[in-house]
Amino acid sequence: MNRSGPDDAETPGSERKARPALDELVTKLYNDGWETIGKAGHQWYKYKFRRQVDQSVSGNTSTVSSPGRAETKMQWLKKSLDAIEQKDYHEAISASGNVIQLDPNDAKAYYIRGIAYFRVAELEKAVADFDRAIELDPKDAGSYIERGFAYTLLSKYERALLDYDRAIQLDAKDARAYSMRGLVYLEILEDYQKALADYDRVIQLDPTHLESYKNRGLTYYMLDQADKALADYARVIHLDPNDAEIYYMRGNVYSGILEDDQKAFADYDRTIQLDPAYAKAYFKRGYIYFQREQYEKAFADLDRAIQLDPTYTEVYYVRGLFYIKLDQPEKALADLDRTIQGDPENDAAYYQRGFAYIGLKQYEKALADFEHAIELNPSNTGAQRGREVRAIASNFSNSL
Questions:
Q1: pLDDT the model gives residue 385
Q2: What is the pTM of this model?
Q3: What is the domain class of 1-18+311-400 according to CATH?
Q4: Which residues make Cβ contacts (< 8 Å) with residue 383, sequence separation at least 6?
């Protein structure tokens, strides 16, 4: 079997840089990333009007109550805040809705309900509530930031940037706006210098905010500035040595830029120790095992990655590539079929499957895959060479 073809392909899991999905990053930031920012954090409402609400309820200063109920407007507002803090978002929607029924011009109630809608993934409703909150209180930076969150997840990035910009104009010390704007610059626009500037500002405002060190490190990683990326990751490890993700990210620097697979392996190993369900770390460690010709361990890690995430298309691709290199075309074919099923625009998968078909002496199918790979990516020179290999193999087989 001709081995030159598969070896020429780009192999995910080695030098290719892995970038977290935007939705995953946004959700992580929103749910977990602001605990250390204090007054600039996602519990802004606590500091902005929580004390006012609590004092009003304890003093029973509000005279407005719901028909047939003893609760005042401020009591309903307090219930909505309590529900947000307890992550009972449907109760928060209900309680803040009662506030709005009593007072349709209460910006705080729309703001709180918008947060609750965001948390239950009803993003259009969240935007509508933040729209109303901004209409009632156009100088409140928090509503622009929250609406920017929603626009980001709705892939309305220009609108999101406008909201983050406006929030910064209103409150230049609110770290959330800089961090979310930096994320759009990093992941969508790939404007790494602007992303760095925003993360620098977040860290200036809160030197202990781990997610911003991670994202600034990721930005340096995309710029091939390994030393600076490692410095940021070291800071995270110093602040939280049990953060599984940071070892994975550092392992990518060692593997993807410095080509130090020994250190990369140690970091992926540490990630798995801290989080045995971290599929990406098994994938990367399995790749290194294969390079070391420890095939049993390599396939065990890749199998585990797929068990943890059956939709992890890149693992099927790499495992299929490994099967081709080990002259196991039937197993390779199954994995590459699964790759194409999950990513039908992946020209490399068609190219590799063409070699699996050659190994099975199914030359017409091989040619069809090479042709399709070229159709998807005319610069795929490997597929062009694959057509030649197919012709040679077919002619050799016919001469026997």
A1: 72
A2: 0.81
A3: mainly alpha
A4: 347, 350, 351, 354, 370, 371, 373, 374, 377
